Amino acid sequence: MDVSNRHEEATGQELLDSVANLTGLPEPLVQQELQQILEGAGQNAGSVTLDELRQAMLLYLESLAELGEFDDDGLNSSQGPGSAEEKSDSGSDLSFIPSV
């Protein structure tokens, strides 16, 4: 997504494709997670705006914080490599993310 043209922001699938691409992570995995996050926030992925995506991501991060997934330094340091907690609620394998 070209952020220099903010007056023509992408929406819907174009926005999700751009976000998935910009993460540098496997795009199918990111697309799946974004779909689930948007569904959880009651948003339609086909017509989501940037502001709606931001709101959905905020709700998602707040839900992780409530579950104790984060401590003051970021990710919960009690989670070591290979732990069962490397799976998200959606069952996605997050083992490719390096531990901090």
Written overview of the protein:
It is built from three helices and two strands, in the order H-H-H-E-E. The chain has helices at 12-23, 27-40, 50-66; strands spanning 70-71, 74-75. Helix 1 (12-23) crosses helix 2. Mean pLDDT is 77; it is low at 80-90 and 96-100.
Task: Summarize, please.
This protein is mainly α and 100 residues long. Helices cover 43% and strands 4% of the residues. It has helices at 12-23, 27-40, 50-66, and strands at 70-71, 74-75.
Number of strands: 2
Largest sheet: 2 strands, antiparallel
Helix proportion:
40-55%
Strand content: under 5%
Task: Return the structural class.
Answer: mainly alpha
- Uncertain spans, ≥5 residues at pLDDT below 50? 80-90, 96-100
Count of discrete alpha- or pi-helical segments spanning 4 or more residues: 3
Give helix and strand order, one letter per element, not per position.
HHHEE
Radius of gyration: 15 Å
Assign an overall shape: globular
Arrangement of strands in the largest sheet = 1-2
Query: Mean pLDDT across all residues, rounded?
Result: 77
Distance between the termini: 29 Å
Topology:
Elements: H1 12-23, H2 27-40, H3 50-66, E1 70-71, E2 74-75
Antiparallel strand pairs: 1-2
